[in-house]
């Protein structure tokens, strides 16, 4: 996994200024999460990947339409606030939820390496996404995580300490960005209506 992490934008390298989280760098790092699911080798992640891709596309479309008003995620949301349809605001909110789910699961897997990966993802789902899903989605997710397995892509083994160091750096930065933006959404009432 470390070679993969070295090929994608790390959340630790996403610039954060007083104005907020850099939109393009964040989207690039989020795209890396989509590819990470390919490494896990399970069809259980197809719905998660599709959701992440769709929400990345919504935020990207807003950025492309108004780059100066969308240079940071916070500016993007604030500048979309007066519009009837806040597609990027909602897309970012769901993207953050999906990233939080992924982050919590991988942090749990890091903290307890003897636990099955499916258990880490199931617990993370309970803590992050379950409250937002209807009965049907909950059932689909529960069924898919039971079949989850790790299917490494091959190649030379990566020293565990290097893998853990890079993954922990990546996850810590992701967790900080998610918490920052969740707080921004809550304080600004940007999550209302979704």
List the helices and strands and how they pair.
Elements: H1 2-7, E1 16-17, E2 20-21, H2 23-40, H3 46-65, H4 73-80, H5 87-111, H6 117-128, H7 135-146, H8 160-188
Antiparallel strand pairs: 1-2
What's the CATH topology label?
Glycolipid transfer protein, GLTP
Strand order of the largest sheet: 1-2
Whole-Å distance between the termini?
Answer: 35 Å
* Shape assignment: globular
Report the helical percentage. 55-70%
The CATH homologous superfamily is named Glycolipid transfer protein
Under the CATH scheme, the architecture is Orthogonal Bundle
Quantity of strands, as a count: 2
Helix and strand sequence: HEEHHHHHHH
Q: Major sheet, described briefly?
A: 2 strands, antiparallel
Mean pLDDT level = 79
Number of helical segments with 4 or more residues: 8
The CATH C-level class name? Mainly Alpha
Count of spatially separate domains:
1
Which percent range describes the beta-strand content? under 5%
Mind explaining what this structure looks like?
- This protein has a two-stranded antiparallel sheet with strand order 1-2.
- The protein is mainly alpha-helical.
- It is globular and about 50 Å long.
- α6 (117-128) runs antiparallel to α7 (135-146).
- It contains 8 helices and 2 strands.
- 67% of the residues lie in helices and 2% in strands.
- β1 and β2 form a beta hairpin.
- It has a single domain (21-186), classed as Glycolipid transfer protein (Glycolipid transfer protein, GLTP).
């Amino acid at each position: 996994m470390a070679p993969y992490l070295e090929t994608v934008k790390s959340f630790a390298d996403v610039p954060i200024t007083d104005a907020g989280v850099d939109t393009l760098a964040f989207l690039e790092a989020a795209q890396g999460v989509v590819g990470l699911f390919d490494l896990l080798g399970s069809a259980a992640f197809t719905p998660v990947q599709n959701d992440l891709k769709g929400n990345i596309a919504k935020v990207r479309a807003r950025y492309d339409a108004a780059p100066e008003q969308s240079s940071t995620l916070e500016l993007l949301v604030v500048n979309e606030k007066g519009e009837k349809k806040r597609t990027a605001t909602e897309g970012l909110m769901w993207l953050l939820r999906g990233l939080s789910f992924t982050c919590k699961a991988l942090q749990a897997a890091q903290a307890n390496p003897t636990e099955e990966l499916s258990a880490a993802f199931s617990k993370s789902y309970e803590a992050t996404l379950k409250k937002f899903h209807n009965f049907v989605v909950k059932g689909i997710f529960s069924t898919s995580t039971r079949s989850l397995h790790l299917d490494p892509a091959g190649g030379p083994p990566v020293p565990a300490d290097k893998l853990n160091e890079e993954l922990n750096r990546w996850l810590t930065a992701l967790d900080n960005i998610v918490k920052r933006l969740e707080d921004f959404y809550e304080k600004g009432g940007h999550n209302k209506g979704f």
